[in-house]
Amino acid sequence: MAPARDDSYTTHELSPGAVLQVFQQVEGAAPPPSSYILSVRGERFDLGEPLSPGAEAHLEAAWAFLQGLLEDPRPAAWADRLR
User: Residue 67's domain spans which residues?
Assistant: First the structure.
């Protein structure tokens, strides 16, 4: 992944490269060398509906996984955990 401008007209949907580009613009520095995407599977996207039980379980699993990663922020530890 590398910083890259895209043609998004809203911040509700940015490509990963655009997120890194915004970081670079705001911080005035290159983004961290290791960047990751955490994807959470969604279910049923009806307007105004709460999370489905399945989506809630996916969110909880993603949150637990992220907390585990943040316990040791070294890139080598993340690489080991992501294998």
Answer: 36-83
> Would you place residue 11 in the very low, low, confident or very high pLDDT band (cuts 50, 70, 90)?
low
Amino acid occupying residue 68: G
49 and 19 within one domain:
no
Give the pTM: 0.66
Q: How many CB atoms lie within 10 A of CB 20?
A: 19
Residues 52 and 79 occupy one common structural domain: yes
The number of residues in the chain equals: 83
Q: How many CB atoms lie within 10 A of CB 18?
A: 17
Q: What span, in angstroms and rounded, lies between the C-alpha atoms of 63 and 40? A: 9
Query: Do 44 and 68 share a structural domain?
Result: yes
Round to whole Å and give the CA distance between 30 and 27: 8
